[in-house]
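Standup notes
- DV: blocked on the single-chain target, sequence here:
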Amino acid sequence: MQKQLFADLDALSRAAADDFTALVKATDRPFHVALSGGSTPKKLFDVLAQRGRDALPWDRIELWWGDERCVPPDHPDSNYGMTKQHLIDPLKLDPAKIHRLEGERPPIKAAEDYERALVAALGAPPVFDLVWLGMGPDGHTASLFPNSAGVRDKTSYVIANQVDSPLTKGPATRLTITLPVIDAAHHVRFLVGGADKADTLAQVARGPSELYPSSLVTSADLVWFVDRAAAAGAKL
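- DV (later): unblocked, structure below
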């Protein structure tokens, strides 16, 4: 597990923003990034927004999503909605560069259409420049939850994953990219903060297990950005 350890979420977010900036500026072509939802990337988006539009060549950054809840874009649980509030609107990003998962549509059709769009833009399998991932207290990443069919799907690129977890408050459907897409990316960065992740991160650090889907990611350039609270159990 290649990791970078930070004192707190603020330091982690600043470092993740620096890393993103370096990766984007290392190339002069369009840069395709898959965004994560949840509370940890929200802080990262705030950092990027505070740095301003001129800090990055946003006109060649294409925003995609790694997963989405089956809700409208203006719903409080929408990953897109959170990104819009904390990144897209503050920086006035070009709508043509934003490719959202349409959680308000029938899930299977939305997943099929997103997969088709990804393949058209990025090939088969789709190859992102960067995928940002979080990790839930149960070890899920994107919307690949423990014991869900999506963890074992090696042929699809985007799926409507049926999940049943205390974190989803029972049975639910989530739209998500799959492990083949994550692993094909040039760069993958986990952003993990908070003491509630410590015990799970310790399990993930022990090696691959379908019980902890985050442990199954094997991208060639995989780095975990972890704060001290989350790292305590893993002794990183």
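- Follow-up: DSSP finds seven helices and nine strands in the chain.
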